[in-house]
Design goal:
homodimer, mainly alpha, MgtE N-terminal fold, CBS-domain, Tetracycline Repressor, domain 2, 3 domains, 23 helices, about 65% helix
């Protein structure tokens, strides 16, 4: 972090010189000022926000963590806190209020005018991870019978508070969304043109209860920078902006990666998780996988006599099950991701099966070859070598098939396919692989 | 896909009725029309694009795959193909020309006017995965000494061709980027105001050679919908729009997921990969991991006598190494992702180490407990049970430590930490875990 910036911000805040502070801060991006503030002491942060003008302060406050936003607002004079809260975009306020203790949230809400407070409460009640929860009501609405000049006048009046001004949402008489016009279309249109003359195309919107991941998919499919959110009867309640949906895309990818690694998703950034939290997220799957894997001990115990007779068979256990696990992990991660981004669907099952079995076959042949080389180098008998090679072939194909089919079936059953993690496939293939190995050993070695 | 839409498009295209086709198509989103077209025969697609008006046709053509874009343009009359190519956004044209055979690209480029062709060639020469390659030069530039009215006039003139009109890029006399104004600021400003009076804040841009992932990070950090791309001397060459960067974010997450699964990234959507391509991407790591894992055979051979004496020790081999692999996979995927999104950096090494060792310790204690229970159920001696439990404790902690440190060190060495995949960690922990297991066995069982 730039130490000069921190020093400058401190000096100007302590002098309580609003004009100089505004002027200095305006030279930078709000994000960078917020980053510098995060490195400062709480009293310094407080003195910054009591000095800076409200519109500029709000822009910066938006970038801070909800806990810090609360701490700062809570220590301010009520009227200043109230002005900042009202200027903040409504989705940030909702996120702030839901991140603090309900008692604290109640206190914060008293800073808000009645009608605004009611609106915020509605948004707080939308389910987590839905489109409604992400929406902001700071958008510009226009009436269908307005002309472009009327609309421009309206934008000039309310534009300062809106999060996005590139699109104007055209509403019918009951607040229902009837169309979207871009600011560009308004400017390019002849004066006097009515909005209904410009409106065209079908209006894409997302439902308030839609999962955030689906809403993100709609937005990236159509290359929108914002998408309107509607409730019953197509009544418009707000918009979701692309920056919030980029966060969703990051979040969902992180969750999938953590699940594929065999852990429950963390929900919060890494360092926000205590050791206890990490433990809880991880132990669940470790125990489930342990119980599943425990089966391998029984398999090996069952073949105790075979093992005693040919102790060399044991040398290849980790190698064989390892190779099976690796193949399975490759296939399952590729397919889970392909399902998540919509490249593959359930109806492609047969195509996927064919592709994976073919690939598995060639991989298996290669691995069988190197397995027999390995057995030769280790100096075990050629008989054992062939058992190892044949098992490698079978296990690789088997792992490919299981890893191809399981995620697709789970996807169809509306279970998140990412629960079929690499570790899950590895564990599944371990037991079945061992049975194959010993069955082949008994046949080929006449045990 | 909507069969009615396909039928309607076909009828109107065959009638060569441009007005009715334009009117029908304008009722829908270009993406949806493109999706319907993808389901149609090539001759039908061709007749659609020769009937529809150029501006509307271009919007839809942009959504098709480059190979199809080429096939269609190649079969058209030259002047129509030329008009469509010129109307397309420049980044789409670059992508098209780089996706087809150089001979075909050369032919397409002859459809372009000289100056446009030169510009496109420059963009085609930027390295893959850089900001330059993603940039489009269809943006609106203004001069620093213009007034807002002059700027608005200019927007009205050139706005139709621009990809984004919400931001106007203000250039100095040598084409250097000196600031950005939003369309909103221009509309809200008093007539007669000069652009230099509105300009404020420092202008964030990305360098033409910056990696696309970094450019995406800049855009999502500042919540921009577009970011300007500059070459030497701050000379502006184009903008990258948020929709292209969303694709980058998806692409990079997909690559990380595939690498973490132990495969080389596919670069193309799943079904575009032939069996041969999948084989090539997977066999590399399978072989590397096989060679690494081959070590376990030598370890087991080394302990052959110990194994023969206590065959029961072999029962727990898959269980112990499996548990180690699972723990390692959980930690490594979480950290690789945390590094990728910037939640964790190299300087956090010690904090990460402490957190992972502590978590590993508690996980290890739990797994040791269930391991001893499992040994008891299987009916092996309590001595062997304690060897298994102690090994489980050690292996879990060891796996956590390795999985925590390796990705951070690689990140520091500028090697993509995602190469430390789940399978990689599993393989690494397998060998070392077995040595621990047999060492403990020799000590405790006095072998």
């Amino acid at each position: 972090m730039d130490q000069n910036m921190i020093q400058e911000l401190n000096i100007l805040s302590q002098e309580q010189n609003q004009d100089s502070l505004n002027e200095y801060v305006s030279r930078f991006q709000p994000f960078d000022i917020a980053a510098a503030l995060s490195e400062m002491e709480f009293e310094e942060q407080l003195s910054f926000f009591t000095t800076i003008s409200i519109p500029i302060g709000t822009e910066i406050l938006e970038y801070l963590e909800p806990e810090l936003q609360y701490k700062i607002l809570n220590r301010m004079k009520e009227d200043l806190a109230s002005s900042l809260l009202i200027e903040m975009s409504s989705d940030t306020v909702v996120n702030l209020l839901l991140s603090i203790h309900p008692h604290q949230a109640k206190k914060m809400m008293e800073f808000l005018p009645n009608d605004y407070r009611e609106k915020i409460s509605t948004f707080m009640n939308y389910e987590p991870d839905t489109a409604g929860r992400l929406a902001t009501f700071d958008y510009i609405a226009a009436r269908i019978n307005w002309t472009v000049d009327q609309t421009l006048q309206h934008i000039r009046k309310v534009g300062h508070d809106a999060e996005i001004t590139s699109y104007i949402y055209v509403l019918g008489s009951r607040g229902e969304l009837t169309g979207i016009v871009s600011l560009k279309e308004i400017i390019l249109a002849k004066p006097g043109t009515k909005l209904e003359e410009i409106l065209q195309g079908d209006t894409i919107s997302v439902s308030v209860n839609m999962h955030q991941q689906e809403a993100a998919a709609v937005l990236s499919k159509y290359n929108f920078v914002a998408v309107p959110v509607v409730a019953q009867d197509n009544r418009m309640i707000g918009i979701i902006t692309v920056d919030d949906l980029i966060d969703v895309i990051h979040e969902e990818a992180t969750e999938d990666i953590q699940k594929l690694g065999g852990s429950q998703p963390l929900n919060e950034p890494y360092f926000k998780n205590s050791v206890g939290a990490l433990y809880k997220k991880r132990i669940v799957w470790l125990l489930i996988l342990f119980v599943a894997e425990a089966y391998t001990s029984s398999v090996l115990k069952h073949y105790e006599d075979t093992l005693s007779e040919q102790i060399a068979l044991s040398f290849f256990i980790p190698l064989l099950i390892g190779t099976g696990g690796n193949t399975g992990s490759q296939t399952v991660t590729t397919l889970v991701r392909a399902l998540a981004v919509g490249e593959v669907e359930f109806r492609d099952m047969f195509k996927v099966f064919k592709k994976e079995v073919s690939t598995g076959f060639f991989l298996g042949i290669t691995m069988a070859t190197v397995a027999i080389v390995r057995a030769f180098i280790l100096g075990v008998s050629m008989d054992i070598g062939s058992v190892v090679a044949l098992s490698a072939l079978f296990i690789v194909i088997w792992a490919s098939v299981v890893a191809a089919i399981l995620p697709m079936v789970l996807h169809k059953l509306k279970i998140d396919p990412a629960v079929v993690s690499g570790p899950f496939i590895t564990t599944f293939v371990d037991g079945t692989g061992l049975i194959t190995y010993f069955t082949l050993a008994k046949i080929i070695l006449h045990l």
